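Z., the sequence and structure:
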Amino acid sequence: MKILFIVNENPDSGIRVYADIIAKKLGKEKGISIFVDEKLDEKYDLVHVHSCRPENLARLKIHQPYTPVVTSTHMTSGEVQGLVPDMVLSMIDLGLSTFYASCERVFVTSPHIMNELEKNPALSHKLVLLPYPVDPKRIKKSTQGEISAFKKKFSIDSKKKTVLCVASIQYRKGVFDFIEAAKKLSEYNFVWVGKIPELPYLKRKDEIHSIVENNPIPNLFFTGPLYGDELSAAYNSCDLFWLPSFSETFGLVIVEAALAGKNILIRNIPVSQMFKNFVDTYSQEPEKKIVEILENSKKFSSKRIIAKTEIKKLSLEKHCGRLVEEYKKVLEKKK
């Protein structure tokens, strides 16, 4: 089986991280060859589209017009809010639905997205609920020396407790809420790992660049994107992982924080139901919840234990097995 993955995303993108994990795992399976964003003109048995951006769909139409296509729902109009003009948002869901209808399978990353897509009768028989899997090797346990080196590199005060977020620096991810919390809670470090998307219509673009480049808040730190051992050290160095995002189709960083054994706080958004047994949520005034968790760590320790059990259900082996099963069904149908 020869499969082309169309991804075309930056290395720190959750979409890219997921695609690379799956490609590596499937590549070890006997008889499966995965190509990621390369050799577009070759003959493939199947194309798996991971990023449904217009330019990626154009490449698909040009290079693989007759190859069976499956896709994953990493994106809705909610996930591009603040990245494109607001007037375009209503067109995005229509465009995605039209594309999904042309696919043989649509792998859906979370139940709340599944519920929305099931309302479309043209899609209901193509949908497969398949949340992100866990790669236990991605976030490793850091030594105290690695954590100390990480804090020293970015001048993070080792005497203060640390709140961490890992995400691209944009409005939809809640960066302005993170900044306000850092201002109000100067007794803690607030560390954001990620970079600013290079997009012309980025919402409040000038404000974001100004704060990141001229950061006037002494307890707020922007590290830029991190990978490998440094990313693991960032997770292991924090006392609380906080994702203030307004919208997520899954939230891979939530799972990564759970792998690191951290208490997790997210906004009360639909995807939080997937992790309800081990995350804490808020609707407003996140500062109160942050202080409560940081100053009463024993009270919340049971959730860290539950997380270790819950994320084991997101088996990489089972996930890839289901993918291969669905790939084979599509190819059998096309014979």
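Residues 316-334 form the longest helix (19 residues). The CA atoms of residues 19 and 50 lie 7 Å apart.

Let me know what you think.
H.
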